[in-house]
Amino acid sequence: MTQLTQLLKTRLQENENRKFLKDISLNQWFTGKDVEDDIAIFQEAFKRNGLESGDVVFMSLENSAVYIPMNQAMW
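Request: output the structure for the sequence above.
Response:
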């Protein structure tokens, strides 16, 4: 885990019950817990599909809050 992803993980835990991240296109806020739950879902999906450390993953997303949990799940 990089220093940046570790810092984000810490901030998610500190803001477990606070609106932390907003998806502007959905006009929806997510708490730190919401984001942590999404990270766990992505991690499980990555494992089920055989992604492992060292694999290369290309992400091409429009401005979306999903970038944060998806990126965190890859670490």
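The beta strands are 19-23, 28-31.
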